């Protein structure tokens, strides 16, 4: 039993070293965000010749309002890792639905600074994602609850009646939901 434990320990040490020894890269779709690791060529992947419509639900933002919303960065990671593994960016259509504390990341710098005394740390990432044709929807109920209006949002972000409404409509339009 002791030998098995030692072998397991060595295996875990070796495999953790291999993972941490890998370096992350960003891009090619969203440079500077969405770091990914290289994986073996034969790894299970999306089919490279299909078109995908993906809906990501972003219900949370960082507690430290000076930090980037890592849940939104997952969209950049999704685009980058699949582009690096043979899926053309034009075959990936993403839509992000922000609600709950996730909506704060959708604010323009003026509205964000008014609320949190700093510029929006997720603005640059969101702008790059919008340039990559990612759609953003903000839950109108969460916005109203927090006292936000459409003019408080970054350009290119759409106000929806609710996050639930957006989920239903996008899923009816063929989007597959990734829920965090």
How does the major sheet shape up? 5 strands, parallel
CATH topology: Hypothetical Protein Ychn, Chain: A
In the residues, how many domains can be counted?
A: 1
Order of helices and strands: HEHEHHEHEHE
The portion of residues forming beta strands comes to 15-25%
Map the helices and strands.
Layout: H1 2-21, E1 52-58, H2 70-84, E2 92-98, H3 109-116, H4 123-131, E3 135-139, H5 140-145, E4 157-160, H6 163-172, E5 176-179
Parallel strand pairs: 1-2, 1-5, 2-3, 3-4
Key words describing this protein structure:
globular, Hypothetical Protein Ychn, Chain: A, alpha/beta, 180 residues, five-stranded parallel β-sheet, single chain
Describe it for me?
The chain is built from six helices and five strands. It is α/β, with parallel strands linked by helices and 180 residues long. The chain has a single domain, classed as DsrEFH-like (Hypothetical Protein Ychn, Chain: A, 3-Layer(aba) Sandwich), CATH 3.40.1260. The longest helix has 20 residues. It starts with a helix and ends with a strand. The relative contact order is 0.16.
């Amino acid at each position: 039993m002791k030998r098995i434990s030692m072998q397991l320990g060595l295996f875990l040490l070796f495999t953790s070293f291999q993972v941490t020894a890998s370096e992350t890269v960003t891009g090619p779709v969203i440079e500077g965000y969405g770091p990914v690791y290289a994986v073996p060529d034969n790894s299970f992947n999306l089919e490279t010749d299909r078109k995908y419509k993906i809906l990501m639900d972003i219900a949370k933002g960082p507690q430290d309002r000076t930090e980037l919303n890592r849940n939104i960065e997952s969209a950049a990671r999704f685009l980058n890792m699949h582009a690096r593994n043979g899926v053309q960016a034009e075959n990936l259509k993403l839509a992000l639905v922000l609600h709950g504390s996730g909506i704060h990341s959708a604010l323009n710098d003026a509205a964000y600074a008014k609320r949190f005394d700093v510029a929006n740390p997720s603005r640059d990432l969101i702008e790059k994602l919008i340039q990559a044709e990612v759609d953003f929807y903000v839950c109108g109920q969460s916005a109203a609850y927090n006292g936000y209006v459409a003019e408080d949002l970054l350009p290119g972000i759409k106000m929806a009646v609710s996050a639930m409404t957006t989920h239903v409509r996008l899923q009816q339009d063929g989007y597959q939901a990734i829920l965090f």
